[in-house]
Specification:
heterodimer; A: 354 residues; alpha/beta; Rossmann fold; six-stranded parallel β-sheet; 14 helices; B: 303 residues; 2 domains; 10 helices; 11 strands; elongated
Amino acid sequence: MYRFIVGFIAFIGGLLCGYQSDTPKTAHQLDYKQIAINIPITQHASLSDKTYALGEKYLAESLAAAFNQAGFTAKVYTQEDTLAERNPSSGYEFYMREFPEIQTFNFTYREIYDSDRISVLYETIPYPLDVVKNVDIVFTGSLKRYHEFQKSGINAHFVPQFTSSENFYPAYDKKYQTDVLYIANQWPDHPVRQTVQFALDKGIKLDIYGNNWDNVLKDTNAALWKAKQIPNNQLKYYYSSAKIVLNDMRKDMLDADFINNRVFDVTACKGFLISSYSPAIKEIYGDTIPMFQTADELKSLVDYYLAHPKERQKKAELAYQITLNRFERTKIVKEMLNIMETYRRQHMEAHHEK
Amino acid sequence: MKNKLLLLCCLFILGFGCGVGIRHINNNKTVAIRVSQPQKLIDYDLMSSINFISYHLKKQGYTVLGTSYAGNLYPPSLNRAKHNIFVRAFEPFYDVRIEKNTQNIFYVERFVRQYKEEFVGYSGYLTSQRNIQKEMFPAIKMHYLPSLAVPHPLLTPDHQYDVLYIYETLNAEYTAFLEQYIKNAKIYGGAAFANLTEQERQEELSKAKLVVYIVDTGLKDDADFVPFAVYDIISYGRPILTNFNPSLANVFKNNIFLFNDLADIANETFKALNTPLRIREERARKARELLRAKNQDLPDFFN
């Protein structure tokens, strides 16, 4: 009898172990070493367009490269990719856009996604508060908005935009030399960009690159428009070789105190930059980037600095040091990953406690 | 002693093998239903369709492990499912995780804002809107799931209300009509009604002399599509007034009440309420029987 009971227990023990052994404990689990970067481009095919006219694409590619260098697997996705089954196990969803997943009218991100996925919004332009509050982590390039978000209880961090010294570095080439360079798109149905309007008013000769300038630059001004787009990997030659590069910003970015990427990219190439007035640029770069508010100011700055190459070089060198020390990709991405991983550890602990 | 230990080991290994085998057999017929519903409430019609799918699967020998939604699509309790039905609600699935060696069906009961990118990566596709599907996504091969209902118990009438109005989208005119002319009416949104417990739902249906279910005609449905919720009410044997539909009229004749357009609802409500109680209840029972006869054996979704 005793032998029979022991044998029976051994069999049942084996049965239970065998039954439990097949339980898929890891099914549907997310991989927090994977990051899906979602950008505001509609079609997947645009990802392979080397001259696509949207800065976020290049910023996202640069970000993905830095994440990959840091041991993560990051991939860039368009809106078209969102609903298709593409990277279902990415633990982090990194948004550089608000639509459609975050901009849900009545639901939070956690309700439309499974609660173990971590959402990150990288605010390179200002988004409505209703959208920003939906995500787990917000990186904003505006100090002003960072303080606003903090007051609203949003998990926000001030992380400015950045440049990559792998892509943007001093690369003077006589072939690309110009006096005054301006690279930006003219948005359809919008007023002419301020810098170009001022330059046209004052007869400043610019070399203009970008989309949609055909309706603005007509007749005698048509020759100012040199080309639609410069491939991103060639921008460094243009920025490094121009005597002056001009910069301006969208009004909403200016109002929210953002600094656009062009500032970091141009200065990383030791290009000399003159910008429309921005308190944020002033605070960080001081007088290394001269600024204008009127057409007359622009005209006098251009005239002065064209005539004073040594001063140009001195300011460009100082601005270059500031960019390299504070806005280089490696440093910014390291900071981002620290914040994301800290959140993940806390989030996982809270999840396990539940 | 050595032989005894060896025997024990053999018994353990035999048990282990049996355990793995039993598990394998059990798992092969496990299903999880995952719904792209962000809110904690599921609409009555969608809930009825999910209940019908569960019923159908159980009839075919599957074990339905559960239904997940509202930001918790992948609870550990559903991990061992070898089959998944992804039910498209009002919002798309933003978080589709597909495990290897599982079968995954994407089901669309009613087409709302739908994108072609959603139809990627599943083992198969199922819809209750065959014509709309062909019109919107002709390239996608989808199987057809007709709307039907779980065979419910026949409810005993307990006439406390004249009308129980359940809406997909609130009809303000009809609500005003109820308030003015039918003093004793109760109104539920589809989601609120579905959020009741099964017992509470049965009680509410029993209490009503007439259940009015108004279909949202703003949704682009097949002309012959009848919401699962309508059949669900019929399946309980309760008198119903709903939108005219040729497939309802042909099958149920005068055993259910139908209105042609919104201007017609008030008249039909009076007509239904003025039908002698015994006849109204008898017709509802007859409709329930006709529905049972209509219930058919459907094919296995996963084969």
